[in-house]
Amino acid sequence: MSLVNRQRLSPSSPLKTNPVEALHVKLTKQAGHLIEALDRVRMEVGKDTSFSVDFPQIIVAGEEKTGKSTLLERIAGLKFFPRDIGICTRMPMKLVLKHLDSEEMRRFCKSHNLDDSQNAYCRLKFEGTDGTTVWSEKFYKIEEVEAEVRMHMDSAVKRKNGGKSVTGITEDILSIDITSTNVPNLTLIDLPGIFSVQKDGEPDDMPEATKRLVDKYMSQPHTMVLVVVPAHHPIRNSQAVKLVLNNRKEPYTIGVLTMADRAIDPRFPNDPYRGLKETLLGQSHHSIPLPHGWVAVRNLDMEVNDHYNPTFESSWFEENLPGFLDKGHVSSEVLISKLSSMLCKYVEKTWLPGTKQAIAAKIAETKKSIGDLGTDPASNPQAFFSQVMKRFAEVLKERVTSLIPRIPQYVKTHLDVRVPTLEQPLTLNW
Question: What is the rounded distance in angstroms from the CA atom of residue 48 to the CA atom of residue 37?
Answer without folding.
Answer: 17
